[in-house]
Design goal:
Structural class: alpha/beta
Strand content: 25-35%
Shape: elongated
Number of helices: 8
Number of strands: 33
Largest sheet: 9 strands, mixed
Distance between the termini: 53 Å
Length: 419
């Protein structure tokens, strides 16, 4: 048995239903972000930058894209003989086969994986947040405080605190109480869903609570530590952290990358974000092309104009087309003389010549007004849009559509077309 001081368990099985059509064919951590990356690249890169070289990735929902992306962990230098990255899907046992039913249940079902490294500490991470964090500094804090569990927290505006799990801590940062989405918050320290546990205490808590339905850290494990008076501490994080859980927050986080002085900088040498780079040709700009304040992935060909947007790899923007305030994912092809405003175009979409997206006034979306909102036009993966189609705002399209699917070549604001 090889002993590791700290291993990481990365929860990446979430469907991410608030991302709507973007997660219909893949788990949320596999969704593209920032042009060339996927969301899971951020916590994985944090691990290797923090010196954590053993990571278990717990997958469940639509894992194929995620598994293919992670592979054997080469881009993150996690292809180790001992440790490295291991994908941990739910598996069939002789008796009691079950899916992961909650965040802590997923960890409980992989006790054997953790025990083979006999770690002193276990770092629990979510696979769906955008941030850079030195987990080593958090571990130092955990040791210094002689904590059994340390929870990373972030101050949020008091008026937003009721959306989070809130920690109440004393001047020594010891957690005295906590509240899950309180109506009247007593603190603004929001849990980030990042935990360091002393392994012995974590194992005891998981075994003691194993029969709980939907075993969860926030609902069961943290209360167990609190009730047993095991030392709980809050580690305050002051950097950029974004939960890209909704289409609007996902769009905003991408747009923040192209600010003149971005709050979240992808270009820092000392804290690189690594990804599974394919061998792609360089990007190409045609004679009449124009690009401003835009991230563009490798292999992309621009013949039109791209302004304040984030483009993935192998994208094509036709001559005379204008793409503004939009996210265009890998492999999408946009024809000539199109006009796209505030769009999220998923992977491998084909848009015919002369299409105009994002016209007119907003109307609530008929499929789900809380997901498809804020004026966005969302096109699902592998969709085909025929030439000359005009759409309004808060529009959703998915599938291989034909001219006959559109009334007078239009899809009005708030409408959905799902094939």
């Amino acid at each position: 048995m090889v002993k590791k001081e700290m291993i990481a368990m990365l929860l990446a099985g979430g469907q991410g239903s608030r991302l709507g059509i973007l997660t219909s064919k893949m788990a949320k951590p596999a969704v593209s972000f920032g042009g060339k990356y996927r969301i899971i690249d951020f916590p994985l890169s944090n691990c290797i930058n923090s010196g954590v070289d053993t990571v278990g990735v717990l997958t469940q929902y639509m894992p194929l894209r995620l598994n293919t992306h992670i592979g054997i962990g080469i881009p993150w230098d996690l292809d180790k003989n001992v440790g490295g990255v291991t994908v941990l899907p739910p598996y069939e046992k002789i008796a009691g086969t079950e899916w992961y039913t909650g965040t802590a249940n997923a960890i409980y079902q992989n006790l054997a994986y953790m025990e083979q490294y006999n770690p002193d500490y276990v770092l629990i991470l979510s696979g769906d947040h955008i941030y850079k964090m030195d987990y080593e500094a958090m571990l130092e804090f955990h040791k210094e405080k002689k904590a059994e569990c340390t929870i990373a927290v972030m101050p949020v505006p008091m008026e937003e605190a009721s959306r989070f799990g809130i920690m109440i801590a004393d001047e020594n940062k010891k957690i005295t109480d906590f509240e899950e989405k309180p109506k009247q918050p007593r603190s603004n320290l929001a849990s980030m869903g990042i935990y360091i546990f002393s392994f012995k205490a974590l194992k005891e808590a998981l075994v003691a609570n194993a029969s709980q339905a939907g075993l969860d850290f926030g609902k069961h494990i943290i209360p167990y530590f609190h009730d047993k008076d095991l030392p709980l501490y809050a580690y305050e994080f002051a950097g950029y952290w974004k939960d890209v859980g909704t289409l609007t927050s996902y769009w905003q986080a991408n747009m923040e990358l192209i600010d003149i002085v971005p709050e979240f900088n992808l270009y820092e040498e000392y804290w690189r974000i690594y990804t599974n780079d394919q061998a792609l040709p360089p990007l190409y700009f045609g004679e009449k092309s124009f690009a401003e304040k835009t991230i563009i992935g490798e292999g992309t060909e621009i013949y039109g104009s791209v302004i304040s947007s984030v483009l993935g790899c192998n994208v094509e923007v036709g001559e005379g087309s204008v793409v503004r305030d939009s996210i265009i994912m890998h492999g999408a092809k946009i024809g000539k003389n199109c006009h796209l405003e505030k769009c999220i175009i998923a992977e491998n979409v084909v848009i015919g010549d002369g299409c105009v997206f994002g016209e007119g006034e907003e109307a609530p979306n008929e499929t789900n007004a809380s997901i498809y909102c804020d004026g966005l036009v969302v096109i699902g993966e592998d969709s085909v849009i025929p030439p000359g189609i005009h759409t309004g705002k808060n529009v959703l399209i998915s599938g291989e559509t034909k001219p006959s699917h559109y009334e007078d070549g239009k899809l009005l604001s708030g409408r959905s077309l799902l094939l």
